[in-house]
Description:
The protein has a domain at 5-96 and 167-235: Up-down Bundle (Rhopdopsin 7-helix transmembrane proteins). It is 75% helix and 3% strand. It has seven helices and two strands. The chain has helices spanning 5-29, 38-58, 73-94, 102-131, 138-157, 169-192, 202-235, and strands spanning 63-66, 69-72. β1 and β2 (69-72) form a beta hairpin. α2 (38-58) runs antiparallel to α7, α3 (73-94) packs antiparallel against α4 (102-131) and α6 runs antiparallel to α7. 36% of the residues are buried. The structure holds retinal. Retinal binds next to α3, α4, α5, α6 and α7. Retinal binds at residues 79, 82-83, 122-123, 126, 129, 142, 145-146, 149, 183, 186-187, 190, 213, 216-217.
Amino acid sequence: MELTSNQELILWIGTAGMALGAVAIAALGFSLPKSERHHVTASFFVCAIAACAYLAMATGVGTVMMHGEAVFFARYADWVFTTPLLLLGLLTVGMAAVTGGGEAARERSGLIGFVIGADIMMIATGFVASLRIGQSDRWIWYAVSCVFFLLVLWAVYGPAKQYLDARMAPLYTRLLGILTVLWLIYPVLWVLGTEGTGTLDVTGEILVFAVIDVIAKVGFGIMLVAGVRSASKAAA
Ligand code: RET
């Protein structure tokens, strides 16, 4: 698909925003005590991956034509890696250190596997929905994706809470609230965009996704790292 110059500009700004976000998160990470720096890894790669996805879209290799319409597959390639990393970042911030030996660690891995598994299914089935652009069965795929989204929310609001560290629980709850509000915008935007009802035109869709993406990745990552920093200062 040929991008208009406005669409290209938005995608280049998205690329720069994500790349700067990755640098800012890494820099902020160095202000953390060494023992807490591992919290930065997931947030850094979320922004680095998104910077590459935006670069792919800006340089015109991020779309495929389906049923005569352009689908931004790079978005889904980005989300399938970044959303599990965002959830992993959230869970590792909130969960207490494992003290119960092997079985406790396996239990946690099971929960993390559930959250990430459901999340990958959410993005994969959402991707199939978008490949069915213009076909009525896309709504079946959309509904399947929403079911997996609900499973993710159920796990992070339910079973995950029993593993929380008392010191980090307020940060987990705050980040989870922000994540929920931001993530709920995606399925709504999908319905309004070209893959759904076409209420928003392609440029509007690219713009709104770019803004939400930068907040959900860079904004969320900075809040996470800053939150870890204040929690570790308070504990010192
Ligand atoms: C789709 C459409 C199908 C139904 C649902 C969706 C949810 C997508 C979500 C994406 C989150 C992306 C993030 C990106 C990072 O910046 C695939 C749009 C439920 C929740 C957080």
